[in-house]
Amino acid sequence: MSGIANPAKKTKRRVNINAVDPEAYKAMDGLDNYVDNLPIDPIQKEFIKIRASQINGCAYCVNQHSKDARKIGASEQRVFLVSAWREAGNIFSDEERLVLKMTEEVTLIHQNGLSEETYERAIAMFGEQRTAQIIMAIIVINAWNRIGVATEMKPPKDK
């Protein structure tokens, strides 16, 4: 038998990190609060969260941040097209397209990292500080995604 776990054998409920290790959760919350207060366009922040969550397969976060994006004024069309931003034509601005490209490259860091081309474009468009802030926003949602996927968090059903 191979060393692959049997997917049919699942625990009934995974650990709730906030309940069993509130200090760890508090630290993550601190990073999240830092990112929330960055001077990055709020819709761009939500697009970062949606795209990273799509790539990471975190349904809980895709659901939550799609709703959050709509609440702050992103059109339904733009939220639906985040996963196909390259093919969406002029639906996304040049800034948004670059932010989404950065999100993909940092989220998929194991492939090629943040490419030199993307990094140089970010520095030219955003400057060093804002580029660093965008990278931090991407890192934080990736951490939340890993918590959500590892603990099998599911979105609540709509009423």
- The tally of beta strands, per DSSP, is 0
Structural domain tally = 1
Our Rg estimate from Cα atoms comes to 17 Å
Helical content band: 55-70%
Task: Using the alpha-carbon principal axes, give the shape.
Answer: globular
> What is the top-level CATH class?
Mainly Alpha
Strand-and-helix sequence, N→C?
HHHHHHHH
Q: What is the CATH homology-level superfamily?
A: AhpD-like
Biggest β-sheet: count, sense, barrel? none
Structure description:
The protein is mainly α and 159 residues long. The chain has a single domain (21-83, 90-150), classed as AhpD-like. Helix content is 67%, strand content 0%. It has eight helices and no strands. It has helices at 17-20, 22-36, 42-56, 59-71, 76-81, 94-107, 109-112, 116-150. The longest helix is centred in the last third of the chain and has 35 residues, at 116-150. The mean pLDDT is 93.
